[in-house]
């Protein structure tokens, strides 16, 4: 059996990752590729273009002599936040653009893919291989964003259409609202002491997962089960959205601007007074009580834990105990602010803008969700969002101090 070169392995991965993005968009109409119903949502065609822009800008332009960019203005359209590469369309205005069309974006992808195929059939420098791998991991991040953004686009449409009734995406959509969960009274415990957290290798990790380091964790318990819809309904029924003592001041201010006090994508069930429906990628579903609550923001997660007599875990507690509970159904809020690990250093090239500059005013989430691409989740992964954001598949894992629970 022939031994594959590193470039050949990357080429196989490149083809698989790039084709999956197209498969996720296969159930969409051209019109579905354009809207931007929330500031944090990007149109699907923008995701398809941006992930191609990455390979064109960070690899093809600097690495391939004579490479010709597909369109001279696409860098302005598809740059996300890289100051290194100049001005760009504001994030909140990505849904304002009818052009380039979906067909033109797909032609852009084909142009980039053809050039990347040629590049990956040669011999790359180590840094080039690193940038290819980073680009593939980056595209997998956007595949998860594609699913959550598509849900926001379709879920704010009054027709509430199903995303993929014919199964063209290849995603098991039933996992989104699966009601199976561990017993609610089972907890796992960490004794007080030092633990090591952060990426230990081997394999890929983003720079914000390093360096691995020692930190202290007190005696704590984390629950095996995530907070369920039924538990969250009990919080709502007990006035959880009306009791200021449960909320951060900033969360209380956020709450005052909300017209409906329930998780995102919940809606009253017209056929059942007092009941709720949950819009899912399969369309509206009766709320499943034992399924993990999702689409709650940090303020809501904190207020629920205050009401229940628990708290959110720190990210060190989460990582220390993660081998002992099942995770991966929801991104789980922690009480840890997104900050650099001791010894963290940003890269001096453009890739240094990828994570480091966002380490302020955001909360860390751990785990993964059903929308996370296969092979993309790991225990050291540090996701991060601003406290009011809840369009992602976010959930709640309770923590409690051992002394307080005895």
From TrEMBL:
Family matches, as NCBIfam families: egtB_TIGR03440
PANTHER family in the record: HERCYNINE OXYGENASE, SULFATASE MODIFYING FACTOR 1, 2
Pathway of action: Amino-acid biosynthesis; ergothioneine biosynthesis
Domain Sulfatase-modifying factor enzyme-like: 184-320
UniProt keyword annotations, A-Z: Iron, Oxidoreductase, Plasmid
Name this protein carries in UniProt: Ergothioneine biosynthesis protein EgtB
Gene: egtB
Pfam families, alphabetized: DinB_2, FGE-sulfatase
InterPro entries cross-referenced by the UniProt entry: CTDL_fold (IPR016187), DinB-like (IPR024775), EgtB (IPR017806), Sulfatase_Mod_Factor_Kinase (IPR051043), SUMF_dom (IPR005532), SUMF_sf (IPR042095)
Residue ranges constituting the DinB-like domain according to the UniProt record: 14-144
């Amino acid at each position: 059996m022939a031994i594959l070169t590193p470039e050949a392995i990357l080429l196989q991965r490149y083809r698989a990752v790039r084709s999956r993005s197209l498969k996720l968009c296969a159930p969409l109409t051209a019109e579905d590729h354009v809207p931007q119903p929330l500031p944090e949502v990007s149109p699907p065609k923008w995701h398809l273009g941006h992930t191609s822009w990455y390979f064109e800008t960070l690899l093809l332009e600097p690495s391939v002599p004579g490479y010709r960019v597909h369109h001279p203005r696409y860098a302005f359209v598809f740059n996300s936040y890289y100051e290194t590469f100049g001005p760009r369309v504001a994030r909140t205005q990505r849904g304002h653009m009818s052009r380039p069309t979906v067909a033109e974006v797909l032609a852009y992808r084909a142009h980039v893919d053809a050039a990347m195929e040629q590049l990956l059939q040669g011999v790359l420098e180590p840094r080039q291989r690193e940038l290819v791998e980073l680009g593939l991991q980056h595209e997998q991040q956007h595949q998860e964003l594609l699913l959550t953004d598509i849900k926001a686009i379709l879920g704010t449409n009054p027709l509430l259409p199903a995303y993929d009734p014919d199964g063209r995406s290849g995603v098991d959509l039933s996992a989104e609202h699966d009601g199976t969960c561990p017993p609610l009274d089972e907890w796992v415990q960490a004794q007080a002491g030092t633990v090591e957290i952060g990426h230990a290798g081997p394999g890929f990790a983003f720079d914000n997962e390093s360096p691995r380091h020692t930190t202290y964790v007190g005696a704590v318990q984390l629950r095996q089960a995530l907070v369920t819809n039924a538990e969250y309904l009990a919080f709502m029924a007990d006035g959880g959205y009306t009791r200021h003592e449960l909320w951060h001041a900033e969360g209380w201010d956020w709450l005052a601007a909300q017209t409906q006090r329930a998780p995102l994508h919940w809606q009253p069930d017209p056929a059942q007074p007092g009941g709720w429906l949950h819009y899912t990628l399969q369309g509206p579903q009766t709320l499943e009580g034992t399924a993990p609550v999702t689409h709650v923001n940090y303020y809501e997660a904190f207020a629920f834990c205050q009401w229940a007599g628990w708290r959110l875990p720190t990210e060190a507690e989460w990582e220390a105990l993660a081998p002992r509970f099942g995770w991966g159904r929801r991104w789980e809020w922690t009480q840890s602010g997104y900050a650099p690990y001791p010894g963290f250093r940003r890269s001096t090239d453009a890739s240094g803008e990828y994570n480091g500059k966002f380490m302020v005013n955001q909360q860390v989430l751990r785990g993964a969700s059903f929308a996370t691409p296969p092979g993309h989740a790991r225990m050291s992964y540090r996701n991060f969002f601003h406290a009011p954001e809840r369009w992602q598949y976010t959930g709640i894992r309770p923590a409690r101090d051992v002394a307080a629970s005895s």
